[in-house]
Write a structure and sequence with these properties.
The chain has ten helices and twelve strands. It has helices at 49-62, 81-89, 106-116, 130-137, 142-155, 175-185, 211-219, 284-289, 294-306, 326-329; strands at 16-20, 67-71, 96-101, 120-124, 160-164, 188-192, 224-226, 236-240, 246-250, 263-266, 271-273, 282-283.
Length: 331
């Protein structure tokens, strides 16, 4: 018998769980964190493999979660990741498993992750120009990312999605080039409006390239045909006429999709967040380490989601950026 759905007070059913495996990263993207990095979580505070497996087991078996995306930081920095993926894929009511990564470690890990049970990857890539990549990320690793994309495709991690965040005056002149690159290589391209989730608190709405602008840039090179939206997926999709290629735009700021949100997030230190922009967290790690049984974990989870707000409020005068940056929350 299926478990009761995980529902908030607005009737939204939550089936998608994002699990951050680490807050550490091997890039220093300018829109995410300062050049010197951040104060990483102490190792003892990070949830163990056993704790991740137990929490995901509660989520899938008692709460109706069907999709789990592993995130970071950079999740490929997690030691023994293929083994953890294998344990998650072996759970009763095993979820659909995917991973969001910067792609640097995929050459050495893609095949092992696919064999362990991972289904798909999303790879962040904001530019195709080596010198610009080095400026944006403060690391000269573009070749590693491109090789990682090819390794993911060869391993059968399909579809391979490429995520880009256009920023005005930084990389917005590459929007059509990135889409063409994805089409040529058989990847699915996703453009995401930038959001106020940087550690520096320097997000500037005027530098955000809107979904409408992204579509205008794409329309200069491609004939776009609207595609049907899939369930609660955040991306609005268009097919490039004459091909099977699809490009998506995630308009998190200008066309928010909070009314259909089906996600909850677990941070690397075991805090449950019912919204990416939540101001409060529920400490599942403390419950785990205090000896709580599965029923207590389920109750805490349901209570957190029941208190979820109607939306992220980025466009409201009283909006406050979360204290944790994106790298610490998990994508």
């Amino acid at each position: 018998m299926a478990p009761p759905p995980l529902v908030d007070r607005f009737g939204r059913v939550h089936t998608d769980l994002r699990v951050s495996l680490t807050d550490r990263c091997n890039l220093r993207c300018t829109y995410c964190m300062p050049a010197e990095g951040l104060d990483w979580l102490p190792r003892a505070d990070v949830v163990t493999d056993d704790e991740v497996v137990r929490l995901v087991g509660v989520a899938t078996q008692r709460l109706g979660i069907t999709e789990v995306r592993l995130t970071g930081g950079e999740p490929l920095l997690r030691r023994g990741l293929p083994g953890l993926v294998a344990r998650l894929s072996a759970l009763d009511s095993a979820p659909d498993l995917s991973l969001t990564t910067n792609g640097i470690g995929l050459v050495r890990s893609a095949a092992a992750l696919r064999e362990a049970g991972l289904n798909r990857v999303n790879v962040s890539l904001d530019t195709l120009r080596p010198e610009r990549f080095a400026t944006l990320t403060r690391r000269d690793r573009l070749t590693d990312v491109l090789d990682g994309l090819r390794a993911a495709r060869a391993a059968g991690l399909a579809p391979v999605k490429v995520n880009a965040v256009p920023v005005r005056g930084v990389n917005d002149d590459e929007i059509a080039d990135l889409a063409a690159f994805a089409v040529e290589n058989g990847y699915l391209m996703r453009f995401i409006e930038s959001m106020p989730l940087d550690a520096q608190g320097a997000w500037d709405r005027d530098r955000m390239v809107t979904a409408e602008e992204i579509l205008d840039r794409l329309g200069e090179r491609f004939d776009l045909v609207p595609a049907a939206r899939r369930g609660n997926a955040p991306a609005e999709e268009w097919r490039i006429a004459g091909t099977d290629a699809v490009v998506g735009v995630i308009a998190s700021v200008t066309r928010p999709f909070c009314g259909g949100c089906d996600r909850v997030r677990l941070t690397a230190d075991g805090q449950l967040r019912n919204c990416l922009f939540a101001s409060e967290e529920s400490d599942l790690r403390a419950l785990l380490r205090g000896g709580a049984d599965d029923a207590a974990l389920e109750a805490a989870w349901r209570s957190s989601v029941a208190g979820k707000g109607p939306g992220h409020a980025i466009n409201s005068p009283g909006f406050r950026q979360p204290e944790r940056p994106m790298s610490a929350i998990g994508g």
